[in-house]
Amino acid sequence: MFKRIWQYIYTSLLRSWLKWLLRKTTGTCELQRICSGYKPGATMTTKAEYSLQSSKNKVRYPS
Hints:
Low-confidence stretches: none
Radius of gyration: 14 Å
Number of strands: 0
Mean pLDDT: 82
Helix content: over 70%
Number of helices: 3
């Protein structure tokens, strides 16, 4: 129960504020921080995929 509440609060409020704060302090977007902070491989790929899936700006490709 607590895990679901925390997950809701994190995904709806805290994550966007944290991303904004990191962008202002580092001057880089989330994908740039992921690509520069991890060695190429599974960890970097899963972090990038999570970032893109969690993004509020969904890209829709034409059919």
